[in-house]
Amino acid sequence: MTYTLQSEAQKIFDKIVSDPRLNSPDGVKEFASKMKFIGDETQPFYPTPWKCAESQAALLVYIGIFAAATSKERYGLDQDIEVDVSRALLTGLAQCFIWCNDKWDSLAPEMDAVTRRWDHGYTRELYRQLATNIYRTKDGRWY
Q1: Per-residue pLDDT of the chain (143 residues; tens, 9 = 90+)
Q2: What are the extents of the domains in the chain?
Q3: How many CB atoms lie within 10 A of CB 72?
């Protein structure tokens, strides 16, 4: 099978929705079959060792099945869920493209202070960014 962004997003989504630690309700899991990954881009286009577009799309679909289940329960609406994988990447990068007070917010010292508060693993340090998830471990995971 050829690698595509959509097929990899599907694999990631399947792992998320079936992860017992998340304790997803069965009523929500029923909507997993009503989702679809779409998009004209089928090959990775964002140069990074992480599967950014695929992971972001999988998370958005996971949120989507909760929204679809809620919509069905409250309003009786039965909906399908589609996520464009290449556009999904932008939702994860949105913080980088905020323009406010004539400057990019991602470069503002105020934004840096807020981000550091959340970044307990110091992932903003360049050497950590360049050396993450590029080494395959014996159990098939990545470090």
Answers
A1: 788 999 999 999 999 999 999 999 998 999 999 999 999 989 887 767 678 889 999 999 999 999 999 999 999 999 899 999 988 887 766 666 676 677 766 667 776 776 666 666 666 666 555 555 556 677 877 65
A2: 5-97, 98-143
A3: 17
Whether 37 contacts 6, CB under 8 Å: yes
- Tokens representing residue 107 in the block: 């470069």
Distance CA 84, CA 133 (A): 24
Mention every residue, 6+ apart, whose C-beta is less than 8 A from residue 108.
100
Choose among 106, 121, 99, 11: nearest CA to 58: 11
Residue 70: φ, ψ to 5°: -65, -45
The verdict on pTM exceeding 0.90 is: no
